[in-house]
Design brief:
alpha+beta; 50% helix
Amino acid sequence: MTHEKEENFVWILKILRKLLTSKMNMPKVIVTDKDMSLMKAVGNVFPESYAMNCYFHVQANVKQRCILDCKYPLGKKDGKEVNNRDVSRR
């Protein structure tokens, strides 16, 4: 999916719900990466299901956010190259 917006998630989840014709086939749990748009869409389309967070993806998102918010932008610091590996160790 190119744009992770709530209406896009709702659209795809409604298609999934149509494919799951029986109530017995409805998911009890849907695992997300803590994307708020996806979690809201799950609540709208599958109100009887729980939206749970995937620890691996949440951890990856936190690491990426730390890299983005790092006080040293990627590039050069004190004349030395700084890359993702250097930033994530700090």
